[in-house]
Design a protein that fits this description.
about 500 residues, alpha/beta, 8-stranded mixed sheet, globular
Length: about 500
């Protein structure tokens, strides 16, 4: 796999700051970083004078009037396109990671802002990036980390921005987000419809799911999707490779450790699960991001898994091809070995020091334990990976880190779905955008209409996770280009409707 110089530098920077942890989350951050690097390259000659960084001191607990503590919430504003004083406001909502100045300088929402003369605003989620107090990662403080608190942060920020920029009811607000922040975009419109007129929710997992086995199942289906370079032969090879790895683990764990160049032999069952999860993450991350990935595409992965041109017969076996995938991953990430120590994973996640704005694993793990679940298990026959990855093995981290028992998780997840409506939310003027090969579409909102009105979803047949949010490229598939046009039509329609409604009330 050949990487550009810019991509290579981004990989080095990322691996200097990212803790050891789940590979899938690492790959997500790498995709994010490469997108930012591409944006930075395009904007090297552009002026940044219109971008301002700000802080607002938010209440740590909006739901306790006796709580006086605050935390600094970071945001960026870009006034370059704003048609004062009545131009709309496009709000880019941050998720489980930092926001950057490039979030108001590049992306599909920025292109639309330029067209409609919008004020651009990007806000960071509490407890992520720089929006956190020095002691914020302590477990007792994480009690104030929730989507409900985050939505109230947005409402408070809304009022702050109105005052700071002398906005009025003529300024129409539209929110944007992808993945978890896509869910927040939808929920913000649902819970505060008087503040935001419409919302775009890309790859938004609005239905909390404790046992998210559908994720792995969808990965298997995507590996068979010929439209993106998959095949039944590819999925079969992946499935056979994991069966072989699991069987060899029982007979000769030292050989498995050697083959996958583990940093330490998987000494117990928990380490073995870490290894199996890490190998699955490589495949899952590839499918989730496909052509947006910095590792490889589904087509590339299937090319490796179905290669019949190996010099030696044993290298043609699916197990050896899985070893090859692991080598490609380690090479691209400059990792000398694969860390499979469960003890080290727990130790890293127990670290409560705010060492870098890239810290996100501990916070997101807490939110999965308290609100969402989303544990990508492999306990049913349709899963192409190792059956060692169970709900119990995934959820035990909640007890180890935060003292949250697995028995309490179903109640927490059920509350989230009752509060927001799950995959049948009572929302209007929310556009749910999903890609056909994205496993997260299983917990989003599919194609449907609301009361015979405009469609509330856009389905991109051959697209991956949040692909629509990036600025268009010549190499984009036609389905992705069409989807962006559909999103643009919705946003334009919302702005026209809002103007008409306001004229009638004036």
């Amino acid at each position: 796999m050949v990487f550009s110089k810019a991509q290579f530098l981004v990989l080095l920077l990322l691996w200097s700051f990212t803790d050891a942890g789940r590979i899938l989350m690492k790959m997500k951050q790498r995709v994010r970083d490469v997108q930012l690097q591409r944006a930075k390259q395009r904007l090297l000659t552009a002026t940044l004078q219109h971008v301002k960084e700000g802080r607002i001191h938010q209440q740590l607990d909006h739901f306790n009037r006796q709580e006086a503590k605050t935390f600094p919430q970071r945001f960026f504003v870009n006034e370059a396109f704003w048609q004062r004083p009545d131009g709309p406001v496009f709000l880019f909502i941050g998720g489980e990671g930092p926001v950057y100045e490039f979030d108001v300088l590049a992306g599909h929402h920025v292109d639309m802002a330029a067209e409609h003369g919008a004020l651009l605003l990007a806000v960071e989620h509490r407890f992520y990036g720089e929006s956190i107090n020095p002691d914020g990662l302590k477990t007792e403080n994480l009690a104030h980390l929730s989507s409900q608190q985050a939505l109230t942060d947005l409402a408070v920020l809304h009022q702050y921005i109105i005052q700071r920029f002398s906005l009025s009811r003529r300024n129409i607000w539209i929110s944007f987000g992808g993945s978890y922040s896509g869910a927040l975009s939808a929920w913000f419109r649902g819970k505060f419809p008087h503040l935001v007129f419409g919302a775009v929710a890309s790859s938004a997992p609005v239905k909390a799911e404790l046992d998210f086995s559908a994720y792995s199942d969808t990965v298997g289906l995507s590996l068979m999707n010929e439209a993106v370079g998959g095949s039944e032969k590819c999925e079969s090879a992946v499935r056979e490779a994991f069966r072989a790895a699991e069987a060899l683990m029982i007979r000769n764990v030292s050989q498995v450790a050697k083959d996958f160049r583990c940093c330490q032999p998987p000494k117990d069952h928990q380490d073995q699960v870490e290894l199996m999860q890490s190998l699955a993450d490589i495949v899952m991350g590839t499918v989730q991001y496909n052509e947006e990935s910095v590792l490889m595409s589904i087509s590339d992965l299937c090319g490796v898994m179905t290669n019949q041109s190996a010099a030696y017969e044993e290298e043609r076996e699916p197990y050896q091809r899985l070893v090859k995938l692991s080598q490609i991953y380690r090479s691209s990430s400059e990792e000398p070995c694969l860390d499979v120590s469960h003890e080290k994973t727990v130790k890293d996640l127990m670290d409560t020091t705010v060492q870098s704005e890239r810290r996100a694993e501990r916070q997101w793990t807490y939110q999965t334990c308290t609100e969402f679940g989303f544990y990508q298990t492999c306990e049913d026959a349709s899963c192409p990976f190792s059956g060692m990855v169970t709900l119990r093995s995934q959820a035990e981290i909640c007890l180890e880190l935060f003292g949250i028992s697995q028995n309490s998780l179903p109640v927490r997840v059920a509350f989230t779905n009752r509060y927001y409506g799950g995959d049948e939310p009572h929302t209007h003027r929310v556009l749910y955008v999903n890609g056909g090969v994205d496993p997260w579409k299983e917990v989003s909102v599919g194609n449907r209409t609301d009361g015979g009105e405009e469609a509330e979803s856009v389905f991109i047949r051959d697209s991956a996770h949040c692909a629509d949010m990036a600025r268009g490229r010549v190499t984009d598939r036609r389905s992705l280009k069409n989807a962006r046009q559909e999103i643009e039509k919705h946003v334009e329609s919302w702005l026209k409707t809002a103007q008409q409604e306001k004229k009638r009330t004036e």
